[in-house]
Amino acid sequence: MAILTKNNLKNLAIVILLITNVSTISTIFVHEYRVKHHFKHGHGHPPLPPDSHRHEEHFSRFLVKELDLTSEQEEKIHIYQNEFRQKSRALMEQMNEYRIVINNELKKQNPNKDTLNKGAEAIGKHHEKIKILSFEMLINMKKVCNDEQQKKLVEIFVEMQPKHKDRRRKKRH
User: Fold this and answer.
1) Which of 48, 91, 128, 147 could serve as a FRET partner for 24 with CA atoms 20 to 30 Å apart?
2) Are residues 12 and 67 in the same domain?
Protein backbone atom coordinates (compact mmCIF):
# COMPACT_ATOMS: atom_id res chain seq x y z
CA MET A 1 0.00 0.00 0.00
CA ALA A 2 2.93 2.35 0.71
CA ILE A 3 4.19 1.94 -2.90
CA LEU A 4 0.74 2.75 -4.24
CA THR A 5 0.65 5.90 -2.12
CA LYS A 6 4.09 7.03 -3.35
CA ASN A 7 3.02 6.49 -6.95
CA ASN A 8 -0.20 8.42 -6.35
CA LEU A 9 1.73 11.29 -4.80
CA LYS A 10 4.16 11.34 -7.74
CA ASN A 11 1.30 11.32 -10.22
CA LEU A 12 -0.50 14.07 -8.34
CA ALA A 13 2.70 16.18 -8.29
CA ILE A 14 3.15 15.65 -12.03
CA VAL A 15 -0.45 16.66 -12.72
CA ILE A 16 -0.09 19.80 -10.59
CA LEU A 17 3.15 20.77 -12.36
CA LEU A 18 1.57 20.10 -15.73
CA ILE A 19 -1.44 22.28 -14.91
CA THR A 20 0.86 25.04 -13.65
CA ASN A 21 2.96 24.94 -16.82
CA VAL A 22 -0.09 24.94 -19.10
CA SER A 23 -1.66 27.87 -17.27
CA THR A 24 1.60 29.83 -17.40
CA ILE A 25 2.07 29.22 -21.11
CA SER A 26 -1.58 30.08 -21.75
CA THR A 27 -1.20 33.36 -19.87
CA ILE A 28 1.83 34.26 -21.97
CA PHE A 29 0.01 33.51 -25.22
CA VAL A 30 -3.08 35.46 -24.17
CA HIS A 31 -0.91 38.44 -23.23
CA GLU A 32 0.95 38.27 -26.56
CA TYR A 33 -2.33 38.09 -28.44
CA ARG A 34 -3.73 41.11 -26.61
CA VAL A 35 -0.60 43.17 -27.29
CA LYS A 36 -0.60 42.24 -31.00
CA HIS A 37 -4.35 42.87 -31.24
CA HIS A 38 -3.84 46.29 -29.63
CA PHE A 39 -1.14 47.25 -32.17
CA LYS A 40 -3.04 45.79 -35.11
CA HIS A 41 -6.02 48.03 -34.48
CA GLY A 42 -3.90 51.18 -34.50
CA HIS A 43 -3.87 51.94 -30.81
CA GLY A 44 -0.16 52.74 -30.64
CA HIS A 45 1.66 51.43 -27.62
CA PRO A 46 -0.24 49.16 -25.23
CA PRO A 47 -1.61 50.89 -22.16
CA LEU A 48 0.61 51.07 -19.12
CA PRO A 49 0.05 48.33 -16.57
CA PRO A 50 -1.83 49.34 -13.42
CA ASP A 51 1.37 49.25 -11.38
CA SER A 52 3.43 51.45 -13.73
CA HIS A 53 3.56 54.15 -11.07
CA ARG A 54 5.56 51.76 -8.90
CA HIS A 55 8.64 52.41 -11.04
CA GLU A 56 8.25 56.15 -10.55
CA GLU A 57 7.77 55.70 -6.81
CA HIS A 58 10.77 53.39 -6.66
CA PHE A 59 12.92 55.97 -8.47
CA SER A 60 11.75 58.70 -6.08
CA ARG A 61 12.67 56.55 -3.07
CA PHE A 62 16.00 55.78 -4.72
CA LEU A 63 16.75 59.51 -5.09
CA VAL A 64 15.74 60.22 -1.50
CA LYS A 65 18.08 57.49 -0.27
CA GLU A 66 21.01 58.17 -2.62
CA LEU A 67 20.95 61.93 -2.12
CA ASP A 68 20.05 61.73 1.57
CA LEU A 69 17.30 64.30 1.03
CA THR A 70 15.50 66.10 3.82
CA SER A 71 11.71 65.90 3.83
CA GLU A 72 11.54 69.48 2.54
CA GLN A 73 13.90 68.66 -0.35
CA GLU A 74 11.97 65.48 -1.08
CA GLU A 75 8.70 67.40 -1.28
CA LYS A 76 10.10 69.95 -3.74
CA ILE A 77 11.70 67.28 -5.90
CA HIS A 78 8.41 65.36 -6.03
CA ILE A 79 6.71 68.51 -7.30
CA TYR A 80 9.29 68.83 -10.11
CA GLN A 81 8.97 65.14 -10.97
CA ASN A 82 5.17 65.33 -11.10
CA GLU A 83 5.28 68.39 -13.35
CA PHE A 84 7.67 66.57 -15.67
CA ARG A 85 5.52 63.42 -15.73
CA GLN A 86 2.35 65.33 -16.58
CA LYS A 87 3.93 67.33 -19.39
CA SER A 88 5.96 64.45 -20.82
CA ARG A 89 3.01 62.02 -20.75
CA ALA A 90 0.91 64.46 -22.77
CA LEU A 91 3.74 64.73 -25.31
CA MET A 92 4.17 60.94 -25.43
CA GLU A 93 0.44 60.50 -26.05
CA GLN A 94 0.69 62.94 -28.95
CA MET A 95 3.73 61.04 -30.26
CA ASN A 96 1.69 57.84 -30.15
CA GLU A 97 -1.00 59.52 -32.23
CA TYR A 98 1.63 60.48 -34.83
CA ARG A 99 2.93 56.90 -34.80
CA ILE A 100 -0.57 55.63 -35.52
CA VAL A 101 -0.85 58.02 -38.47
CA ILE A 102 2.55 56.90 -39.75
CA ASN A 103 1.71 53.21 -39.31
CA ASN A 104 -1.62 53.62 -41.09
CA GLU A 105 0.06 55.52 -43.91
CA LEU A 106 2.72 52.82 -44.27
CA LYS A 107 0.01 50.18 -44.63
CA LYS A 108 -1.33 51.91 -47.75
CA GLN A 109 -0.39 50.71 -51.23
CA ASN A 110 1.23 54.08 -52.03
CA PRO A 111 2.15 55.85 -48.77
CA ASN A 112 2.28 59.63 -48.91
CA LYS A 113 5.88 60.68 -48.19
CA ASP A 114 4.79 64.13 -47.02
CA THR A 115 2.51 62.58 -44.39
CA LEU A 116 5.31 60.27 -43.24
CA ASN A 117 7.85 63.10 -43.13
CA LYS A 118 5.51 65.40 -41.21
CA GLY A 119 4.79 62.63 -38.71
CA ALA A 120 8.49 61.89 -38.25
CA GLU A 121 9.24 65.59 -37.85
CA ALA A 122 6.48 65.99 -35.25
CA ILE A 123 7.75 62.99 -33.29
CA GLY A 124 11.28 64.44 -33.39
CA LYS A 125 10.05 67.79 -32.08
CA HIS A 126 8.18 66.05 -29.27
CA HIS A 127 11.33 64.08 -28.35
CA GLU A 128 13.19 67.37 -28.21
CA LYS A 129 10.52 68.89 -25.94
CA ILE A 130 10.68 65.91 -23.59
CA LYS A 131 14.47 66.16 -23.43
CA ILE A 132 14.23 69.89 -22.66
CA LEU A 133 11.66 69.15 -19.93
CA SER A 134 14.03 66.61 -18.38
CA PHE A 135 16.85 69.19 -18.38
CA GLU A 136 14.55 71.74 -16.76
CA MET A 137 13.57 69.20 -14.11
CA LEU A 138 17.22 68.40 -13.40
CA ILE A 139 18.12 72.09 -13.12
CA ASN A 140 15.20 72.69 -10.74
CA MET A 141 16.14 69.65 -8.69
CA LYS A 142 19.74 70.85 -8.47
CA LYS A 143 18.54 74.14 -6.97
CA VAL A 144 17.05 72.17 -4.07
CA CYS A 145 20.25 70.21 -3.41
CA ASN A 146 23.51 71.08 -1.70
CA ASP A 147 26.81 70.78 -3.63
CA GLU A 148 27.42 67.13 -2.76
CA GLN A 149 23.83 66.16 -3.60
CA GLN A 150 24.07 68.04 -6.89
CA LYS A 151 27.12 66.01 -7.92
CA LYS A 152 25.37 62.74 -7.10
CA LEU A 153 22.18 63.86 -8.85
CA VAL A 154 24.04 64.72 -12.05
CA GLU A 155 25.90 61.39 -11.90
CA ILE A 156 22.57 59.56 -11.62
CA PHE A 157 21.08 61.47 -14.56
CA VAL A 158 24.18 60.95 -16.71
CA GLU A 159 24.10 57.24 -15.91
CA MET A 160 20.42 57.09 -16.94
CA GLN A 161 21.12 58.52 -20.40
CA PRO A 162 21.12 55.99 -23.24
CA LYS A 163 24.58 54.86 -24.18
CA HIS A 164 25.39 54.96 -27.89
CA LYS A 165 28.58 53.35 -29.02
CA ASP A 166 30.75 55.36 -31.34
CA ARG A 167 29.93 53.72 -34.64
CA ARG A 168 32.54 55.55 -36.64
CA ARG A 169 35.39 53.33 -37.59
CA LYS A 170 38.74 54.28 -36.24
CA LYS A 171 41.40 54.80 -38.90
CA ARG A 172 44.01 52.09 -38.93
CA HIS A 173 47.57 53.19 -38.94
Assistant:
1) 48
2) no
pTM of the predicted structure, to 2 decimals: 0.60
Shared-domain flag, residues 99 and 122? yes
Domain range for residue 75? 53-160
Q: How do the pLDDT tens digits run along the chain, 173 residues long?
A: 556 677 777 777 787 877 877 777 777 766 666 655 554 555 444 444 444 455 667 788 888 888 999 999 999 999 999 999 899 999 999 999 999 999 999 999 999 999 999 999 999 999 999 999 999 999 999 999 999 999 999 998 888 877 765 555 454 44
Q: Decide if 109 is inside a domain.
A: yes
Based on the domain organization, do 1 and 59 belong to the same domain? no
Listed residue (103, 99, 95, 53) closest to 78, CA to CA: 53
In this structure, the answer to whether residues 9 and 72 fall within a common structural domain is no
- Give helix 147-160 / helix 53-67 axis angle, nearest 10°: 140
Whole-number Å distance between alpha carbons of 114 and 102 = 10
CA distance 132 to 125: 11
- The CA distance from 152 to 110, in Å, is 52
59-62 long-range contacts (CB < 8 A, ≥24 apart) are: none
